[in-house]
Amino acid sequence: MKKARFIVIGYGWRADFFYRIADALPERFEICAGVLRTKERARQVSEERQVFATDDLNEALAKMPDFAVLCVPRAIVKDYLLRLMDIGIPVLCETPPGQNDEELRELWAETGKRKGRVQVAEQYFLQPYYAGALEIIRTGYLGDVSSVMLSALHGYHAVSMYRKLLGTGYENCTIRGWKFPFEVTATNSRTGFDYSGRVIQEERRWAALEFESGKTAFLDFSGEQYFSLIRTRRWNIQGLRGEINDMTVRFLNEDNLPVEQEIRRMDVGINNNSEWSHKGLMFLDRSIYENPFYPARLNDDEIAIASCLAAMKEYADTGKEFYPLREALQDTYVSFAMEQAMESGSPAMTQTQPWAEK
User: Fold this and answer.
1) pTM
2) Please, which residues have CB within 8 angstroms of residue 6's CB and are 6 or more apart in sequence?
3) What is the C-alpha to C-alpha distance for residues 17 and 293, in angstroms, rounded to an integer?
4) What single-letter DSSP state applies at residue 38?
5) Residues ≥6 apart with Cβ < 8 Å to 8
6) What percentage of the chain exceeds 70 in pLDDT?
7) How far apart are CA 221 and CA 281, in angstroms?
8) Burial (CB count <10 Å: 0-12, 13-18, 19+), residue 58
9) Among 54, 53, 120, 52, CA closest to 81
10) Predicted confidence band at 114 (pLDDT cuts at 50, 70, 90)?
11) Distance between CA 63 and CA 83 in Å, rounded?
């Protein structure tokens, strides 16, 4: 595949992933321009990242990128998307593309009018573990999957995985939710490790989603889980003939005898002098996931985002979608309903939206 050349609009913790990936894989990815709010900020980013940076979008587009990566706050993402659609450049949108249901519907209508080419950087289904779980489901070990519990992701990220793991498409659902405060000792965050013993106030969120087909999804999550060293992530995916519980798979074989096997993660460089890199996942005697960027030293989220970039290059070249805007709109819409149920304590019911109509 040819090198992907792209511009990054915005800067911050999430945009930083794209810069790190381009640094780690220069033969695959190139940031040909960064677009910042001010000339001073552009100068700072240019010095920090050793890339061309500007406050002028047209100046960045003159570098002839394959696509634009949009990493701006949710409040302004729709306006930026419409501007980029009018220009005609394909867009990989990092932030969920709207603040409320009405904005989502407006964006869908405008995308059709402007013939926008938009994909969204929803990366979790491309992370090694989730990609491996989806492969186990695809190959039939669990039979038809009917229920999922994730205590690992929030909002639209969780909804995206629910719909993919359950195969519910654009089915409507009834959602019940609760939230309550609790205290926990801080251990780690975006800013680094915390050894002070400081106690912080967090919020636990519970939700139950029942889809029209009868399939169910359960959320049990607090934002502290993304980084905490004392709050684990948990998964349980149940099918007709088996289940995945974290890294353990239990299923019935062809003779209906129960089998229990672990998903085995292969990381090169542990207990030896090789440079560390994730290699892939094994289940039984077969590979269920292979890192497409081995031996680059990327963490799981970086691998997933790099996979989004590679898929975006293919989309820009061929039109093949990997996570189109309508998928992101559905996941965001359901996440808004989930938030409503958790805030109010009353059930929320989704309705078929324009992007889901056949």
Assistant:
1) 0.94
2) 18, 29, 30, 31, 32, 65, 66, 67, 68, 69, 92, 309, 312
3) 15
4) S
5) 15, 18, 19, 31, 33, 34, 35, 68, 69, 71
6) 100
7) 25
8) exposed
9) 120
10) very high
11) 18
